[in-house]
Structure formats: structure tokens, C-alpha cells
Amino acid sequence: MDAINQSILTWILLVPIAGAILVALLPDRAKLPNWVALLTTLVSFGLTLHLPAHFINGQPGFQFEINIPWIENPAIYYHVGVDGLSLWLVVLVGLLAPVGVVVSWNAIQERRKIFYSLFLVQQTAMTGVFVALDLMLYYGFWELSLVPMAILIAMYGRKDGPKAALRFFLFTFIPSAPLLVAILWLYARTGSFDYVTLQLLLAHGNLPAAAIFWVSLAFLFAFAVKVPIFPLHGWIADAFSEAPVAMAMVIAGKLGLYSLFRFHVALFPAQARLVAPWLIALGVIGILYGACLALVQRNFWKLLAFASVSHFSLIVLAIYGLTFTGWTGAVYQILNDGVVEAALFLLLGALELRYGSCEIGEFGGVAARLPRLASFFVIATLAMIGLPMLNSFVGEFIILSSTFTQVSRGWTIAAALGIILGAAYMLWLVQRLFYGSESTLTAAKSPGDLNTGELLTLIPVVVLMLVMGLMPGPWLAAIETSSRPPALNETAAPLPPSVLQQIKSQVSSQIASQAEVQR
Amino acid sequence: MTQVPDIYRILPEVILTLTGVIVMLTDATLRPKTPRRPLGWIAALGTTIALWASLWQLSLPVGTGFYSTVETSPFTVFFHVLICGIVLVSLLLALDTLPEDSHHQGEFYALIVFGAVGMCLLTGAVELLVVFIALEISSIATYILAGYRKETGRGPEAAIKYFLLGSFATGFLLYGIALIFGATGTTQVYEISRLVATSQSKGLIAASLALMLVGILFKVSAAPFHVWTPDVYEGAPSPVVALMSTAPKAAAFALLLRVVYEMFPTLHAMWTPLLWAVSILSMTVGNLAALRQQNVKRMLAYSSIAHAGYLLAAFAGLGTSGIAAASFYIAAYAAMNVGIFAVITVAGGYDDKRSLIEDYRGLIYRAPLVGSLLLFFLVSLVGIPFTGGFFGKFYSFSAAVDNGAIALAMIGLLNSGVAAAYYLRFALVSVQRPLEDSLRTVSAPRLGVAVGAALLLAAAATLALGIVPSETLRAAESAAHTLQAPPESAPQADAPPTQTQP
Asked: Could you give the 3-state DSSP secondary structure of residue B431?
């Protein structure tokens, strides 16, 4: 079992790549690429389930850790591991992968080999971002995740794919330039890319405070674009409305929010506290702004894009509230958003496939034609707006209550207003799409209701929403294990001198050996 | 040191010369109608042997031969292997893509090999007159190759432009050599390095350094000496561009490393800001100009100018880290640039049937393999991790950051953001659905053994440099050790020069 625990993360990273190569080599016959991709994603999902099964709640630090040298100079390690923060995110990526394949089953008819190959590479890149504990490794996966996404947006865009792809790519790629400089600077000063070492050194080392502040800003900027945090959301509407459904599911949110947690708040707690008031303000603005824009969209993908901005901003609010409860709620809410949006994307994708339109105004009275699709959509909508018993309620409740009691009442009330707006745009969307009189479009076509494959995917997702809403305990228990950043609502406790000395000598010997190599 | 016969010091050059002579003489004795393709294979074979001979030179003790004019060291071996590798890939590429009926095919192969002789010698020479001769050998071969497509107007235009500007630049270099001879009384690199430190004629030495830099920076097409690049690349046949955008540049960068780090380490404070300015200028000019290009080869020409800029950023690093970073970057750049020009040759045709970016629309639909390779090389040029392009930039900019040149690294990385825009525009056009009525869109090219091997070699090298860069970096570091590092007390570089805009 130890051997499996030691290598499970490597397998989770390698299986999709192997699947991608297999898809690329096999001929594009019948549904062969689809089946290979489905099989690969199911296998990798199965592998991710090993993690929660053997995760030890309450054990501090990282688990399933692998730390072997990769490149000697600069010292880059293949260092991966999960803690309570990333555990469920890895599982979520694993879960969304087969859902993505099912969504694309009929929607992608051309160049399936390229589509599924890149889709699988994307899986590896995303998982890699969540498990990497070496800054360069992390940066590698972070950048790698851009490429398949940009290419697929360009290839399968609905109207102007290349433009949206270029915009998406540059929006994320340019901010990663300061990020890389910041990482290099940290390395030049500390001689380490290792997350754990850096965390300790930053908390207790003697690095110049002003420079660290700029470094932390560079990190923050790169992640804020990816979330996106208001006012850096310029890419998201186009990307959502052009990307293939399976890719749009994973495009926003998770990566950026996780990175804010792991590589901003937890790595630079003191600096994060300095900028927290600004981010709380931006978060609340984002909640309201996203919700208002969602209200006036005519295209349901764009509506979903701005709804996401609104929902992710709530999580940003929770992260920068800097309370432990808020963080637990935030991580939980990242998972909830992932699950709920997967269902919404699947259903809207099914709708678009059947009617060939994504303009809300062209629909009407679909519920009479496609009752199953409509009822599933209503359930997902209710989950999205935070109905009790469904999953989002738990997350939103934890976030808002902790913010209200521990951070700021004013901001919380404003944020709660956004939730009301959220109910408005989602319910209005349901009403316009599924009820009312039949539009010419719905009258003209009579497509079939959800097929078996879609049902087989949707039912587990909906069950998951219910379970996560009714029994949040097991999930929260693991999340609360997440390695507590050293400065959580208390001043950084000084490390025992012996430990500090040990780290310092370790690092200085590293630097010395490096200098030797250079000489 | 005396035990090593002098001839071993130039063994790869000798092998290449013999190969070239054999190819040329055989070509002259064959009937006009006889196919010349076997000559290409002979040239490729000779280059491979030369490559092994260079590796074998590692077993020789480091030292000079022929009265201290040529050197063998890990540094020269690194660049010899690199240049022979590039030449090999270019030859394989030309083998399958040169039109069967083209005249002077034999000469073409011979010229490539002779050019390689010059480039290899350039990296090994430690005597400025030998440097000059080597540079001329390599330049003259490339001048002729650039104009190889005589039947089009652009070919001769490219050759003449390249020749005129190139000889002008070589003139600068020669002038610089003359001045340093005047100041020190020698043309031997180590002697100069020793004498410069104590020499009284500071003005003469500074002028000499400046003139030599002009000559070399022209060869690497760094701004503001870059104007020839787009025209020449556009006019020259694509397999030749694959060669001349990489191998002569690698040789010239080797010379630049030798000049600044080995000959003038004491003038560190003078050449660092100069190279900084050129670096920033090259990146910015190259990238901004590339943004507006519609012609693929012109765009890649400007991109190569920008890459010269990224590479020069490594020179901000002191001593070994800077040299190693620059050497690594050259290798990574060569791998991906040869690769992308190989793809351009295959997809665009030897005769540039498809020269505009728009003509590549739908490449991935019509030719999935070539299209995927194009994407891969473009991704590497953008500098995405797990490709050689990333580690090239990484080492280059981390050398700069190590030395406190954070501003330079920042400008460089923001520039690579700009560069991503035009690489990606090209990539995204190639994945779009082809227009049905377009006659110019690419049809699936047939891949021969030779060109397949060329593409495979380039792709494998690019991928390997991105996943396991350690070996190459170690080679680059041991290369760096053999170049004399500047004294540790060298003054810290000042703030970057302010004139970043052209």
C-alpha cells in the first residue's frame, strides 16, 4: 500500500498523457477516440478516488508526497503532494474529466483525435497545478494548461474562436511574466523553489520586506487574472461563449482560486493581510457587477460567464476575509461551483446541440418538449442559487456567516445582495428557456430528450449535489486538515531556534553547493 | 600539450572539408542528367562523422594547436556538435525538398558543408586572423546559398543585400582587429586578454571592442544591425533559412562569448550596458515588427531578431552562469528554429507556394502530423514549459536576475508576451477549418525518409531540452568553465539604459 501511496500522484498525472498519446496514435474510426478518452478519464478518476480513501484527516503537512530531483541546476524538484486544500480539487478534476468526454460525445464531430488528445493533456496540466509543490513545476503546469485550451477554443469556436483564444491566452500569459520574474527572484535570494522551504523562509527569514511585497503582488496579479477578479475579467465572456463545453467547464475559477490560497495567502500571509481590504472590496464589487451583467446577457454562455465571475468573487471575499471558517467555506464552495457548473454546462451544451442556438431569446417552452432536461436544469439552478439541502447553500452559508461575524458586516450585506441577484438571473433564465409559450425555434425542431449517456453522467452529479448539501461533514473534515498557513489571525509564532537554524544551514549549503557548481 | 598532433585539433573541420571536396568533385564528373541526390547523402554522412569527431575531441586535453591559433575545449566541442547537428538536419531537409530538376544540386550540398567548415573553425579559433578567415568562409557560402533560387527575383535580391551589408559588417570586424593589433601588438586572443589589462591605449581598445561588436552583432542579426534579416529570409529557400537562421548565428554567438568574456573581461563595465541596450532593442524591435507581418518567413525573421535579444539578456549574467545560459539558449533556439523552418519547408513548399500566414489555414485538417509539429514548435518559441524554448528563456533571464538585472528580465518576459501574440495568431490560423474554395491552402505533403528524420530530430531535440535539460546544461557549464570568467571583483552593472524604444 505504501508503494501505491508513494506513486499514486504520478500515476494520476501520467494516465491522461498516456491516453492522449494513445488517442493520437489510434485511427479516427467510428467512436474510437471517444471511447479511449472515456476509458482514460474513468481510470484516472478511479485513481483520484484513492486519495480521499487513504487520506489521513488531521495529519498536518502534505500526504502522498513525492520529492525527487528533476533538474540539478537550478534545483528543480519533482515535488508533488496533496493536503486538505488540494485533495478534493484533484478529485474534482478527475470527476469532471469523464463528464467532459460525455458532453463532447456528440458535440465534437471533427478532428476528434486532436480534441481528445488536447483534452487529456489539459487534465494532466490541471491536476499538476493542484499537486505541484515546487514553484517551477507549478509554473510549468500552469503555463501548460493554457495551450490546449487556447488551441481548442480556436478550433471549435462558435463565431470567432481565434480572437477569443488569443485574448484568453494573452490575458493569462502576460501576467505570468511578472510571476516568473518573481519566482526567479525568490530563487536567487533563497536558492530554493520548494514550497515548504520557501514558506518557512518567508515567514522567518530576513528577506527585504519591500521586495517581498512586490513579489507577492506579482503572484497575486497572475492569479487574479485567472480567477478572474474584477476588473481583470475581460477574457471570460468570450472564452465561455467560444470554448467547447467540456473545456469551458474547467476554464475559470478553480486554478486561480486555488493558487490564491496556496501561493498567495499561504505563502505571503503578512503581505496578503496588507492587500486583503482591497481584495474584499474588489470581491464584493465583482459579486454585484457579475450578477448585474448576468442579468442583461442575451447569450446563455455569457450569462454563465458573468454568473461565474459573481460566484468566484464570493470565494475571493472568503479567502481574503482571512478567517479559518471562511477558508473552509471557500474551499468547499470551489468544489460546489465545480460540480454545479458541470451540470449546468452539460445541460446547456445538450440544449445547444439540440437546437443549434445559444441565444436565450430564441428559446421558450422547452420544458414541454424536453421534460427531463428541464427538470435537471431546475435542480442545478436551485443548487446554483444556494437552496438549502443542496451543496452551494452550505458553502455560501459558511462564507457569509464567517464574514459577517469576523470581517465586516457592511461588505457581507452587500455580498448577500449579490446572492439575491443571483437567484434573479438564474430563475429568469429558467423561465425564458423552459417555460412560456413555444418560440418558433422550439416549435420548428423536435429533438429527443436526454439520452442514456447524458443521464448516466447527470444523475451522479445531482446525487453529489444532494449529498454534499446534506452531509458536508466528511468533506469539511479533510479540508480543515489543510496545512494552516503560519500566520493565521495571530502573529507568526517564532520557530524553535534549532529548526530555524536547520533550515538556514540547509539553504546556505544549497547555495554554497550551487556556487561551487558555477565556479 | 605537445603530444597532441595539431591535426586532431581541427579534425572535424578536416573531415568536413574532405566531404565538401568529394561532393564537389563527384558532382563535376557526373553527367548533367544524373540525379544528384546521393551527393546529399554523402554530405550528411560526412557531417555525421564530423559530429562524432567533435565529440571525440572531448578526450583530448584542453589546449591549442597550430601555433596557438585553434583550440579544442568543451566550449568548442559544444558549438561544433551544435553546428554539425544543425547542418545535418538542414541537409536532410534539403535532400527531400530540393526540386529534382534543380541545377547545381551538387554545389548546394558542397556549399552547405563548406559553410559548416567556416562556422566550426570560427568557434575554435583563438587567433583573430583565423577568426576573420573562418567568418569569411562561412559567410561566402551563405551569401551564395541565399541566392540559390536564381530564377525568382527575390533570390538574387536577398543574396546581394546580404552580401553588401555582410561585407560591410565584416569590414567593421576587421577594422576592430586592426585596432586591437595596434594597441597590443598581437592578434592572439589570450595574449590580448593579458595585455589589455595593462595597456595604456584605452581609447584604441574601446574603439576596437565597439567595432568588433558591430561586426558580430550584425551576424547575429541583433537590432539595430538587423535590417537585412527579413529580406534575406524571405528571398532565400526555406531549407537554407533553416540553416542560416541558426548555425551561423550559433557560431557568431560563440565568437561574441569569446570576445567579451575571454578577450575583454576587464572591459566588463563597458560592454555590459552596450549589450543590455542591444538586447532590449532587439527584443522590442523584433517583436513589435513581427506583430505586423503577413508573410510567414518575414515574421519568423523578426522573431529571430527578438530571440537574439533574449539571448543577449544572458550576457547580463556574470561569468559562467551567463556563458552557460547563453550557450544553452543557442542550442534551444537552434532546435526549435530549425524545426519550424523544416515545417515551413514541408508545408509551404521549397518555392514558397504558400508564403502568407493566411495560406496555412487548415493545415491541421489537411496534414495533421505536420500541423501538430508546427503547433509544437510555435509553443516552444512562445516559451511554454516542457519545451526547449522555455528553459532557454528561463536560464537566460535567471542569469540576468541573479545579477540584479530584474528590469531586463521583466522587459524580456513582457516582450515574450507580445511575441506570444504573433506566434499564437499563426498557430490559431493553422487550426482553423480550411476554406473550401481556396486553392492555396495546404494539401497533405508527402514526407520522405530524410525530411521525416529532420523533423523528428528537431522535435526530439526541442522536447528533450524542455524535459531533461540537465545534460545539455552541464555541457554548457563545462563549456563556460573553459572560457575565462571575468574577475570576481568586476563592477556591478549599473541600472539598465533608458533608451528602450527605437
From this structure: coil
% chain A with pLDDT above 70: 92
Nearest-CB residue to A114 (from B364, B406, B421): B364
ipTM of the complex: 0.84
With CB atoms and an 8 Å threshold, state whether B428 touches A140.
no
Contacts of A424 (CB under 8 A, 6+ apart): A291, A295
Any domain includes A401 = yes
Which residues, in sequence order, are CB contacts of B113 under 8 Å at separation 6+? B16, B19, B20, B23, B43, B46, B47, B87
Smallest Cβ distance to A178: which of B385, B410, B433? Answer: B410
How many CB contacts within 8 angstroms connect chain A with chain B?
104
Is residue B391 within 8 A of residue B465, CB to CB? The reply is yes
User: Does residue A138 form part of some domain?
Assistant: no
- Which tops the pLDDT comparison, B501 or A4? A4
Tell me whether residue B489 is in a domain.
no
Query: Among B328, B374, B380, B394, which would you mutate to test the A interface (most chain A Cβ atoms within 10 Å of its Cβ)?
Result: B394
Q: What is the pTM (predicted TM-score) of this model?
A: 0.88
Please give the pLDDT value at position B355: 84
Is B410's CB within 8 Å of A143's CB?
no
Q: Which domain holds residue B147?
A: 6-482
Asked if the Cβ–Cβ distance from B417 to A141 is below 8 Å, we say: no
Number of structural domains in chain A: 1
Nearest to B476 by CA among B401, B395, B381: B395
Given this model, what pLDDT does residue A367 score? 84
CA distance A515 to chain B (A): 10
* pLDDT attached to residue A517: 52
**Chain B touched by A71 (CB under 8 Å):** yes
Query: What pLDDT does B129 receive?
Result: 93
A188: contact with B, CB 8 A cutoff: yes
**Chain B hits for A73, Cβ within 8 Å:** 470, 473, 477
Is B105 among the domain residues? yes
| Beta carbons of B412 and B276 less than 8 angstroms apart | no
Is B311 within a domain? yes
pLDDT mean values, one per 10 residues, chain B (502 residues): 78 94 91 85 94 92 87 91 94 85 80 95 93 94 88 86 91 94 90 86 90 93 90 90 93 92 85 90 93 92 93 81 90 94 87 82 84 92 90 88 84 88 89 67 70 92 89 85 50 33 32
Average pLDDT over residues A277-298: 91
d(CA B484, CA B190): 9
In this complex, do B425 and A166 lie within 8 Å of one another by their Cβ atoms? yes
Distance from CA of B142 to the nearest CA of A (A): 36
Residue A32 lies in a domain: no
pLDDT in tens, A104-124: 888 888 788 888 999 999 999
- The per-residue pLDDT of chain A, averaged, comes to 84
Note whether B160 contacts A: Cβ–Cβ < 8 A: no
B:441-470 residues touching chain A, CB 8 A cutoff: 468-470
Residue B490 lies in a domain: no
**Count of domains observed in chain B:** 1
Q: Are B350 and B97 in contact (CB under 8 A)?
A: yes
Looking at chain A, the whole-number percentage of residues with pLDDT higher than 90 is 17
- In a 13 Å sphere around the CA of B453, the CA atoms on its Cβ side amount to 15
Locate B402 and state its grid cell.
Answer: 541573479
- Band (pLDDT 50/70/90 cuts) for residue A493 is very low
Structural domain range at position A460: 275-483
The verdict on A427 touching B (C-beta cutoff 8 Å) is: no
Q: What Å distances lie between residue A395 and A336, A385, A400, CA to CA?
A: 7, 11, 9
Closest Cβ opposite residue B401 in set A110, A177, A184: A184
Could you say which residues from 351 to 390 on chain B have a Cβ atom under 8 Å away from some Cβ of chain A?
364-365, 368, 372, 375, 379, 382, 384-386, 390
- How far is B424 from chain A, CA to nearest CA, in Å? 7
* Pairing assessment for the beta strands B63-65 and A76-82 based on DSSP bridges: unpaired
Burial annotation A460-473 (CB, 10 A radius, 16+ → b, else e): ebbebbeebbeebe
